[in-house]
Specification:
The complex is a heterodimer of chains A (about 150) and B (about 120). With about 150 residues, chain A is an alpha+beta fold. Chain A has a single domain, classed as OB fold (Dihydrolipoamide Acetyltransferase, E2P) (Beta Barrel), CATH 2.40.50.100. Chain A has 5 helices and 11 strands. The model of chain A has no long low-confidence stretch (mean pLDDT about 95). Chain B contains 4 helices and 5 strands, in the order βαβαβαβαβ. The mean pLDDT of chain B is about 95. In chain B, strand 1, helix 1 and strand 2 form a beta-alpha-beta unit. Chain B has a 5-stranded parallel β-sheet with strand order 4-3-2-1-5, sandwiched between helices. By secondary structure, chain B is an alpha/beta fold. In chain B, helix 1 packs parallel to helix 2. The chains are: A alpha+beta (about 150), B alpha/beta (about 120). At the A-B interface, strand 8 and strand 9 of A face helix 1 of B.
Chain lengths: ~150, ~120
């Protein structure tokens, strides 16, 4: 787990840095996705709801298109898909406690699972490892974002 | 390409501050859900688009002014249309309104409404 400007960023996740979302390959081509600690910070820190668009379940969503929305009293925004894939399911725990995505964004607070359409081709467009963390750090510095 | 089109018709204005934030919030939310969103301003709603007005309207004492909700909606890609007749009602010129607004007649509202999956009115 790297700590960049107060933001926790595990180095074993794939990031779509521009959109502040992560992807984690599971078994059978399933990819678990969620928001980063940076997105949690930018949304105001206390969430009113995270809602996966029910109509999209079973449908293919393109990379960077919205799979869910984040609402707080100060902010509303999309959760973009880090990869192209069929939206399989939402994390039902977020319905009762959306703030799991703030307190545990890489664990219990994951947002959804997708069946990646072409993970092998698309993973190269994501940031991972030391180089990925460095790319994320550059974005945070360029936009003067901190999590502390 | 948006999944669907939705429209919010905004008739509330500076006289009712508490009715003035949620429509913009809902518009931004719909845009975040990949809807193509139009806000159509008429009656008193048009007054919120007059330059400098939204900054002075606060739905909650000490909270965000309407201008910030408006800016969030613009940044989310929400299209803003204002009814020409409502500017006449308030003796406004199109140049009195913020640059992001397009002036249209009432018939345009009907055509968009027919094209939209959902229409909300505030």
């Amino acid at each position: 787990m790297a700590n960049v400007r107060g933001c926790n960023l595990p180095d074993d996740l794939y990031y779509l840095v521009e959109k502040h979302v992560w992807a984690k390959p599971m078994e059978g081509g399933v990819v678990r996705v969620g928001i980063t600690s940076v997105a949690a910070k930018l949304s105001g820190g206390k969430l009113a709801a995270i809602t996966v668009k029910a109509k999209n379940i079973g449908q293919e969503v393109k990379q960077a298109k919205s799979i869910a929305t984040v609402e707080s009293s100060k902010f509303v925004g999309p959760v973009p898909a880090p990869v192209t894939g069929i939206l399989l399911r939402a994390n039902e725990k977020l319905a009762s406690d959306p703030n799991l995505a703030v307190s545990d964004p890489y664990g219990e607070g994951w947002v959804a699972e997708m069946q990646a359409s072409d993970w092998e081709a698309e993973k190269d467009s994501l940031a991972i490892g030391a180089a990925g963390i460095a790319a994320y750090q550059a974005k945070l510095e360029a936009e003067n974002i901190t999590c502390s | 390409m948006a999944d669907d089109k939705v429209m919010i018709i905004m008739t509330s204005g500076p006289d009712t501050p508490r009715r003035c934030a949620t429509p913009f919030f809902f518009a931004s939310l719909a845009a975040a859900m990949e809807y193509e969103v139009t806000m159509f301003f008429t009656i008193d709603g048009t007054l919120l688009l007059k330059k400098g007005v939204a900054e002075t309207v606060c739905p909650k004492a000490g909270g965000k002014p309407v201008s910030e909700f408006l800016q969030d909606a613009i940044e989310a890609g929400v299209k803003l249309l204002a009814c020409t007749a409502s500017t006449e009602l308030h003796d406004l010129q199109p140049s009195d309104l913020i640059d992001e607004v397009k002036m249209v007649g009432g018939a345009t509202m009907w055509q968009i409404a027919e094209d939209c999956k959902t229409v909300l009115t505030f």
